[in-house]
Amino acid sequence: MKIYGMQESTCTQKVLTVLAEKEHEAELVEVNVLMGEDKTLPEHLARHPFGEIPVLEDDGFLLYESRAIIRYLDQRLPGRSLTPRDLREWALMEQWISSEQSYFSGPVYDVIRSGPVYNIVWNSPGAVYFPPPPDEPMLQKARQDVGKAFDVMERTLSSQPYLAGATFSLADVTHMPYISYLIASGGGDFVSSRPSVAAWWERVSSRPSWRKVGKVLGQA
Fold first, then answer.
1. Per CATH, which fold does 87-213 belong to?
2. Model pTM?
3. Which parts of the sequence belong to the GST N-terminal domain (predicted)?
4. How much is the CA Rg of the chain, to the nearest whole Å?
5. Do domains 2-76 and 87-213 have the same CATH topology?
6. What's the pLDDT score for residue 217?
7. How far apart are CA 72 and CA 67, in angstroms?
C-alpha cells in the first residue's frame, strides 16, 4: 500500500492519521507541492487527473480525494472502526464530514493563507499553483465564518466528547489538520476561547496517531 502525498499536507494528514489509528504501515511516496510536483509530474497526473494530493494505491487500485480514502481505509483495514455502528451517530459523522468540506476548511484556509506559516509557500517554486492571500475584506469574512463554525462545534461538544457522539470517528479526523495549521498561523484563540472545543482538541491532539502524524510546514 502506498500513499502519494506530503506529510505536511492537511489532506495527506487525514489519511496518515487513519493509518496510524489502524496501526497499519503504508509507504509514503512524497509528492512535493512546494515544488509544484502535484501539478506538473506526468506520473502523478496519471494518478490524479486534477493534480492534487493524496492518492492511495492499494494492490493496483488507485483512489484520490482524502475523504473517500479515509472511508475506504476504515473499511479495508482491521482494527477499531472509526465509523460509528449506531445509525444516528453514523449520520452525524457524515454530517460533520460534509459540513467540514462546505463551511469549515475553506474559510480556515483563507485565515491560514494570511498567516506566517504560508510564507514558506509564497517563497517556494510551487507558489504559482496556490491561491493568493485573501484581501482584508475576504479575511474578515473568513474569520467570521470560522468563528461561526467553531460556535457550532462548541454547542455540539458541550454535551458529548466527540463530534459524532461518544467515540472518536472520521468526523474528528477530517477537522484536525486544519485546526493544527490554524493554531500555528496565530488562530489559537478560535479554540482556546471555546472551552468545549479546547477540551476536545486536547483529547484528539494527544492521541498517539496525531502525535505521530501532525506536522506543520516549517516546524521540526
1. Glutathione S-transferase Yfyf (Class Pi); Chain A, domain 2 (1.20.1050)
2. 0.96
3. 1-81
4. 17
5. no
6. 83
7. 9
Secondary structure of 131-177 as H, E, C letters: CCCCCHHHHHHHHHHHHHHHHHHHHHHCCCCECCECCCCHHHHHHHH
Mean pLDDT, the chain, as a whole number? 96
Report the C-alpha gap between 56 and 106 in whole angstroms: 23
Cell numbers at 102, concatenated: 462546505
Q: Is the pLDDT of residue 145 over 70?
A: yes
Number of residues assigned to the chain: 220
Domain boundaries of the chain, sorted by first residue: 2-76, 87-213
Cα–Cα dist 190/183, whole Å = 8
* CA–CA distance, 199 with 212 (Å, rounded to integer): 20
Q: Note the pLDDT of residue 219.
A: 74
Q: How many CB atoms lie within 10 A of CB 35?
A: 16
Architecture (CATH level 2) of domain 2-76:
3-Layer(aba) Sandwich (3.40)
CA distance 103 to 145: 7
DSSP β-bridge partners for residue 62: 57
Cα distance between residue 10 and residue 192, in whole Å: 21
Q: pLDDT tens digits, residue range 162-220?
A: 999 999 999 999 999 999 999 999 999 999 999 999 999 999 999 999 999 998 887 76
Instruction: Identify whether the C-beta of residue 69 lies closer than 8 Å to the C-beta of residue 11.
Output: no
Helix H or strand E segment including 87? helix 87-99
What's the one-letter identity of residue 28?
L
| Residue with cell string 454547542 | 155
